[in-house]
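Record pair follows.
FIRST:
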Amino acid sequence: MIPAKDAYQILLQEAEDVTHSRKRADVVKRGLVRELARVLVASGDLTVEPVTGDGVRGIEHVSVRCDEAMAFIKEMCKSGADRAALCCDIDEFCTQSLYRMVHPNVRNRDTDAKLVHAACVENAYADAAAVSFSSYLLRHGYKMSLVRCETLTAAADAASDGDADFCIIPINNSGDGRLNNFYRMLDEGDLKIATVVDVSTGEGTTRYALAGRSFDVVRTATVFEFSVFTDAMNAAEILLSISALGHTTLYVSAFPARMSGGLMYNFTVGLVGGFRSLLFMLDIFYPNFSLIGIYGII
């Protein structure tokens, strides 16, 4: 077997030759990227590890353990399409399951359910959201009890500090429709979205999120939301990668990043199939990204 280091060199040279001389270079390059993924996984230079302990469980993160391997990845996969192809191939070559449910079987009796607490303000809309979230959690083995708070910030703080397992907060709670206040509360409390629901109001609908520090991602997730500190050029490349993976970008926003002077981009992605390849792409090429949530709309 050729050593991984030599294999990377051969693949890189082949890629350079393809770029300069061969016809149908895109087809040949695709094969080289696939071979790169195989070598990465087979050599152990790339590892996939499930999240354990206090965190968003049910996902696996990928890491490149060799600086040389990472250098070859960056050299061979400069475009969004190549990056997407590499991560799809890595997904295929890895055998571990992404979905690790703590409670894989639906539980039908309240006496079997584990009690969790959700913090929220007291009003008709939050109560309506709580009813939907309670039914959702019960299907996955949890019985929800409400902890009343005076403000949305207090509810988010309760989930962040461990006084509650979740908080129930509206996404569109600010003048711009959905953005600053909501994402600030998530960021400051290190909270992630577990699921969302639309609640009817007299003026339309308000989307509420169930957010917490620790929960299980479920198979029915249809939305992947993340943020990354980057520039406009890289943000455009991320959009191309998302499209190449077969997903749909539903929403993109940019905010001034605190203490840095740059921009923080938020991406909301509609998933087609699994999210593993997208997560791998972010792990490898944008390791400073922050997961906002992987969830479904109930």
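SECOND:
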Amino acid sequence: MAYCSQKTDTGLTEGILKTLHNQLGMCHRIPLCKIEEKWLALGLPLLRLQAIWTTGKFGYDAPWTHFLALAAAQISPTVSDTLALLCSLFTTDPEGSDPAIPFGLFTSLYYFLAAEIGSVPKSHVRHVIQHHAYNIQGSCGLISPRVFQHRMAPKLHPDQPK
């Protein structure tokens, strides 16, 4: 079982997010009470859960991918790092490989994060998506951090250093 790290004020770690995903990720929408039960069992602060819930403007339940994206953003400094972490959480590839996810999932997560936390203009998001849609055609419709963090790829946030 993963334990809280004192490196962040959230108590969240990649290991804890992986544990939550393993426990709850089989459903598309998850009720708040179910997430809260697992969250508290892992010793995570209730206020942090409430902040994520408020940021996501979730009601009785939340789309799991959106909830996990906001939780991952709590421990990742950039949109690019958040998406890389999400790739490692959502991949079905063996551990140690470049964690690839379906391009449709990447697109959904990127649009959501850009709107909720990234303040990334929609025109920039569309440009990035179009670029990667063209470039992933030969990779079975999968995208990985190696692709979207490549030095020649467009940055996921226009203010991200080159």
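COMMENT: Residues 103-118 form the longest helix (16 residues).
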